[in-house]
Amino acid sequence: MLTKNLHMSYSDRQIIETGIENGSTKQAIATTLGKDKSTIGKEIKLHRALTYKCNLPLECANYKRCKHEHQCTLDCINYIPFKCTRRDKSPGACNGCGNYRSCRYDKYRYSALDAQHDYQMTLISSREGINATVNDIKQLGELLLPLLKRGHSIYSILQSHREIKLSEKTIYNYIENGVFQGVGVSKRQSIPARKKVR
Q1: pLDDT computed for residue 60 by the predictor
Q2: Model pTM?
């Protein structure tokens, strides 16, 4: 019996990761899990991670035969958009691809462990009333981590990073609630300076 239930267990995600590595289609993975194909597609697209960014201006299928020193533009007569069925259609990620190491186009990987962590972070965010996406949380955590390790306070970080629209107290609350643990920001990093903003 098929179910469109979007809530997946870690074991479900491990099956998805194995399916991708084996080159299974989304439909085949969905059948194995007894879920709808669209549910599998959404899960992979939501949680796959960009592991390599193409350094060409455009993903051109003719880059190996380029006669223009890779100065890619949309109006180039030799430009042919690169298409990858495995990456862009089914299963939707590059795990297990035989060309993974030599490929110079954007590469995406799906990790059951990372997907489960993202899911748990979303739950934490909803419980704590955090108005941010998982990607927002990751980006902010990755910004904070090296600065906190160098001894910067949240106040000084906010002064030098005006693009952060959260208050000092809110960020300390996030740290103490473990929101950034997935990127290595531990709760203890907020303890010394926290007293200043209580």
Answers
A1: 92
A2: 0.62
Supply the DSSP string of 141-189, one letter for each residue. HHHHHHHHHTT--HHHHHHH-TT--S-HHHHHHHHHTTTTGGGT--GGG
On the 0-12 / 13-18 / 19+ scale of CB atoms within 10 A, 32 is middle
At residue 68, what are phi and psi to the nearest 5 degrees? -120, 25
Torsion angles phi and psi, residue 130, rounded to 5: -80, 120
Task: State the Rg of the chain over Cα.
Answer: 21
**Tens digit of pLDDT for each residue in 41-92?**
999 998 999 999 998 888 999 988 888 887 888 889 889 999 999 999 999 9
Write out the H or E segment, with its range, that includes residue 99.
none
Structure tokens at 10: 């870690």
**What six digits make up the tokens of 97?**
């691809």
- Between the alpha carbon of residue 133 and those of residues 15, 54, 129, 137, 139, the distances in Å are 25, 25, 12, 6, 10
